[in-house]
Amino acid sequence: MAEFSFHHGGVSVPDLAAAIAWYDRVLGFALERRFTIAPGCRAAMLRKGALRFELFEVDGAAPLPEDRRVPQRDLRTHGTKHLAFRVADLDAFLDEMAERQADVALVVREAFGSGCFIRDCAGNLIEFVAEPDG
């Protein structure tokens, strides 16, 4: 089978400039470049170390449905659900998110690991997972 590795995830947002600022302020992603994909579709590639995140602003795009903003209800809609990133310490991460005024949608603590979902400035869900040692 061909080898491959993760390159980036992407989300559509209603305000590209606001989203670039949010991903920088809350998660530390820096703007790598802005570009146009097609008429009426502006995009930006953000980077944090080896991670990349692509944002799209499309003229006339439909708003994010309310169910897509709630982790338990989002599962009831087919399609891509979210990206998940690993964190070393969930509690420390949650403290940092509180300081940065992030919208925490859900915190889960299970024997196999803990995690949380936050919403970006457009309501898109992003998961952060802390796995137990060993």
Q: How big is the Rg?
A: 16 Å
- What name is given to the CATH topology of the largest domain? 2,3-Dihydroxybiphenyl 1,2-Dioxygenase, domain 1
Share in helix: 10-25%
Question: What general form does the structure show?
Answer: globular
Spell out the CATH superfamily of the largest domain: 2,3-Dihydroxybiphenyl 1,2-Dioxygenase, domain 1
Quaternary status: single chain
Strand order of the largest sheet: 1-4-3-2
User: Percent of residues in beta strands?
Assistant: 35-45%
Largest beta-sheet details: 4 strands, mixed
Average pLDDT works out at: 93
Pfam family, one: Glyoxalase
GO molecular function: metal ion binding; methylmalonyl-CoA epimerase activity
Keywords: Metal-binding
Protein name: VOC family protein
Describe what you observe in this structure.
It is built from three helices and eight strands, in the order βαβββαβαβββ. The protein is of the alpha/beta class. It has a four-stranded mixed sheet with strand order 1-4-3-2, covered by helices on one side. It has a four-stranded mixed sheet with strand order 5-8-7-6, with helices on one face.
